[in-house]
């Protein structure tokens, strides 16, 4: 069986043989792009080239890009662990043409790579083509249709709408149709019952999208009209973990060697075997997923903190710790101990983790310690609140309870919402915001009389959150109240 390392290398070698320059992944933390918190696609680091600012080092480039989809337009966090093919952090394999080759080459190469190099079964592959949108003035992608028809035949082509098959950088700017490649990994018996074609884009865990080919050929003008671009570009992205699932003949990304080491390691530590219990499996998946995101974001220079990108990471970490606590019985920090294993696994492709392995593990250990100190009491309180809520025939946890859990026990609001959901409840977000606002007013007043020099108040700070008592010492965490 091809290992994940080999699968990644084959991709890069294939495009190298088609005269692509192989470049390293950009950092996960998006620098110099105010519209993006984290890198969420392969093309992000090349955005300027598509906008005509600067010249790429080569007209053909390929790489594997670390991506994180936990905020903004692409937020897959709620699916992670519950499904088997969306991750927080994943690798996106990509190839690009900057004003060089176009649809013909891109689509036939993707077919060649999938069926000849990876030897995926041709009768399990479906492709999609943009159907056009009259209202918006974008035409049906006849060109892609004709190319695919010659390769796979009409019966394997699906027409897709604007949501799935048309890409736009923003309100204005480059845009164009996409063509996605999907694979049906169900067993023969199931395939005999229902055609895979019907299941494409239907959230079936074994009929998944693996690759997206975007063709930038128009520019959206401020008045909404579309003008053909003088030079046309190709931007593709393939989910590496999904590709590994397909090539290794697995039913879930987590069954591939990308995740099996971590799952085995964590399972050993807590005495659970993956595949035996629904909730411990979800917890093992969440942890195997989240630790990668946390580790690589820290290695790329973003420490957990109480605001923006740092708070996203802290929330992901607390989520994982709580899954470990509730479903795997962990009472002591455990996440940090996975780092050496991950560092070795990715040493060749993303050496930044190996290079900072001890530091990353230390940051995570501090975070775990700080959250575990309040987790148990917070969960006890939340259990009480849940029981009360139910006894009052309500399905909504009150806002001030959500606030107290956040303020006193360090429970991110989405974590409380998640636990509420597991109990068939939701949270009162408006009520939470009101409680938060009231707290801000109080702090503002207090701060004017407070003598504590570590309380630094910003006039219009937005978030007030408990950070634990002896946090890792970064300047952003020495202050209790901050923006
Ligand atoms: P999906 O419809 O499955 O959410 P997408 O259409 O949002 O995927 P694209 O933006 O087209 O994804 O990204 C290109 C490729 O990256 C996808 O074809 C898929 O293989 C992979 N991918 C996207 N999101 C994730 C994720 N959260 N985890 C793992 N792989 C992903
Ligand atoms: Mg998506
Ligand atoms: Mg999709
Ligand atoms: Mg897609």
Automatic annotation (TrEMBL):
Top EC class, one word: ligase
Keyword terms of this UniProt record: Aminoacyl-tRNA synthetase, ATP-binding, Cytoplasm, Ligase, Metal-binding, Nucleotide-binding, Protein biosynthesis, RNA-binding, tRNA-binding, Zinc
Residue range from the parent sequence: 1 to 483 of 883
Protein name in UniProt: Alanine--tRNA ligase
Cofactor entry: Zn(2+)
Entry remark concerning the domains of this protein: Consists of three domains; the N-terminal catalytic domain, the editing domain and the C-terminal C-Ala domain. The editing domain removes incorrectly charged amino acids, while the C-Ala domain, along with tRNA(Ala), serves as a bridge to cooperatively bring together the editing and aminoacylation centers thus stimulating deacylation of misacylated tRNAs.
Protein EC: 6.1.1.7
Catalytic activity: tRNA(Ala) + L-alanine + ATP = L-alanyl-tRNA(Ala) + AMP + diphosphate
Function (record text): Catalyzes the attachment of alanine to tRNA(Ala) in a two-step reaction: alanine is first activated by ATP to form Ala-AMP and then transferred to the acceptor end of tRNA(Ala). Also edits incorrectly charged Ser-tRNA(Ala) and Gly-tRNA(Ala) via its editing domain.
Localisation per UniProt entry: Cytoplasm
Organism: Pseudarcicella hirudinis
Similarity comment text for this entry: Belongs to the class-II aminoacyl-tRNA synthetase family.
GO cellular component: cytoplasm
Cofactor annotation remark: Binds 1 zinc ion per subunit.
Domain of life: Bacteria
Stretches assigned to the Alanyl-transfer RNA synthetases family profile domain: 2-483
GO terms assigned for molecular function: alanine-tRNA ligase activity; aminoacyl-tRNA deacylase activity; ATP binding; tRNA binding; zinc ion binding
Main subcellular localisation: cytoplasm
């Amino acid at each position: 069986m091809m290992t994940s390392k080999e699968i990644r290398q084959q991709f890069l070698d294939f495009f190298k043989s088609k005269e692509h320059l192989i470049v390293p992944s950009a950092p996960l933390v998006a620098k110099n792009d105010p519209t993006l918190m984290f890198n969420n696609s392969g093309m992000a680091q090349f955005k300027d080239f598509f906008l005509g600012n600067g010249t790429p080092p080569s007209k053909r480039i390929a790489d594997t890009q670390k991506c994180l989809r936990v905020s903004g337009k692409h937020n897959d966090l709620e699916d992670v662990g519950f499904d088997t093919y969306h991750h927080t952090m994943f690798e996106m394999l990509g190839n690009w043409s900057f004003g060089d080759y176009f649809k013909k080459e891109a689509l036939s190469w993707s077919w060649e790579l999938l069926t000849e190099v990876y030897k995926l079964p041709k009768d399990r592959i479906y492709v999609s083509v943009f159907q056009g949108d009259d209202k918006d003035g974008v035409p049906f992608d006849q060109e892609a249709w004709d190319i695919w028809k010659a390769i796979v035949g009409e019966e394997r082509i699906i027409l897709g709408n604007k949501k799935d098959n048309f890409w736009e950088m923003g309100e204005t700017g480059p845009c164009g149709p996409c063509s996605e490649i999907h694979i049906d990994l169900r067993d023969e018996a199931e395939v005999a019952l229902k055609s895979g074609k019907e299941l494409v884009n239907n959230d079936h865990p074994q009929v998944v999208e693996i690759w997206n080919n975007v063709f930038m050929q128009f520019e959206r003008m401020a008045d909404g009209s579309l003008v053909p671009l003088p030079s046309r570009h190709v931007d593709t992205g393939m989910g590496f973990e999904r590709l590994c699932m397909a090539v290794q003949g697995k039913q879930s990304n987590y069954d591939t060697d990308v995740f099996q080491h971590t799952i085995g390691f964590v399972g050993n530590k807590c005495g659970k075997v993956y595949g035996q219990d629904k909730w411990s499996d979800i917890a093992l998946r969440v942890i195997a997923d989240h630790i990668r995101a946390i580790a690589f974001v820290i290695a790329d220079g973003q420490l957990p903190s109480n605001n923006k990108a740092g708070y996203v990471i802290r929330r992901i970490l607390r989520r994982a710790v709580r899954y470990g606590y509730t479903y795997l019985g962990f009472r002591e920090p455990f996440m940090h101990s996975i780092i050496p294993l991950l560092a070795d696994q990715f040493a060749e492709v993303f050496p930044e983790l190996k290079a900072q392995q001890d530091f990353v593990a230390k940051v995570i250990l501090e975070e775990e310690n700080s959250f575990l100190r309040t987790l148990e009491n917070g969960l006890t309180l939340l259990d009480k609140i849940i029981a009360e809520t139910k006894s009052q025939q309500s399905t909504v946890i009150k806002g001030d309870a959500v606030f107290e859990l956040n303020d006193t026990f360090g429970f991110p609001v989405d974590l409380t919402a998640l636990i509420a959901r597991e109990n068939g409840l939701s949270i009162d977000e408006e009520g939470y915001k009101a409680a938060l606002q009231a707290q801000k007013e109080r702090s503002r007043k207090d701060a004017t009389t407070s003598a504590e020099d570590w309380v630094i108040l910003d006039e219009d700070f937005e978030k007030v959150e408990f950070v634990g008592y002896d946090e890792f010492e970064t300047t952003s965490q020495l202050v209790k109240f901050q923006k």
